[in-house]
Amino acid sequence: MATAPRPRTTTRDPEELAHRLTAWLAARLPGAKAVNVTVPASNGMSSETLLFDIEHPEPPLRACALRLTADPAAYTVFPVYDMPRQYRTMRLVAEHTDLPVPRVLWLEEDPGPLGAPFFVMERIEGRVPPDVMPYTYEGNWLHAASDEERDCLEVASTGLLARLHDQVPVREADFLALPGDGSPLRRHVTAQRDYYEWVVDGLSRSPLIESAFDRLDHLWPSDEGEAVLNWGDARIGNVIYDGFDPVAVLDWEMAAQAPREVDLGWTVYLHRFFQDLTVSFGQSGLPDFLRRDRVERRYAELTGHIPRDMDFYTLYAALRHAIVMLRVAYRQAHFGEVAVPADPDTLILHHGSLRAMVQGSYWEGPGVGR
């Protein structure tokens, strides 16, 4: 799916949204208009984003971005979208860290104006490592960079996680504690099991995903360590860069309290996902970029915390990503874009690497940064 046309993600009309946005904005900033309203080409697979400018003599910000709850008519990726939670998370991170989090301006919880809750934040200019075509592909700006430039980006991006985990007092993030019993990690995994059950409700179950859950139980850490504020979708595709320096950290909808390694495993595996995909299409990709051993070492140097049980956490990342991919594939089937095969595991783009992780062989190959 990272090389095919993007699946349908919404049934909303951008022109109608622009008209309704102008009406909403004028009520909060009399005389203001929303102009140059666009949907970015890299609009996510989950929540929707609108970019617009404020036309007004004295706007709080002129260049804005709007995050809108996913269209419920478009077979949403997640069962719940909590925009106040995201808004509050971004304010918390901005208050307690020096991370470049875009300034949030307004939160609208009433679904009336645009058909769903949303919030507005400042728009930061820069460039993002793309998912389509993946930044690991030849011709992409990050692939074309020098080793030194990519190393600069890797160090700075790992530093984002280190500062987030160290600087936000976890007691201030109580609203991000997941419900249920047990440790933060137990509750995190339970939430993923519940998400999987929601995805496959009335549809074919995935033997591979279920075997991955079983393997997690076998690899469960003996010492889970402290819980910190996790970004949740911790990957360079959710960062805007000026050159090779981060200038905006985006997409906080998966934030939660969890061990540090949940974020680290996601960072490491999501790069591996694109790297493996690139290799499967006959390109070399970026085999020395965001290697697991280097991310672990640099994180330890920055925080004093040595990452542990990373076989568990990278498997958990691949498992979580598989559930999302399965939901996205079922959405494509819902819109008639694909047919559901006899083996639902083949709908998971990285089923081969996930199976290798379940079998314990994935990190044994050459060049994987063990």
Automatic annotation (TrEMBL):
Pfam families noted in UniProt: APH
Signal peptide: none
Protein name: Phosphotransferase
CDD domains the UniProt entry points to: ACAD10_11_N-like
InterPro entries the UniProt entry points to: ACAD10_11_N, AGP_Transferase, Aminoglycoside_PTrfase, Kinase-like_dom_sf
Segments forming domain Aminoglycoside phosphotransferase: 82-279
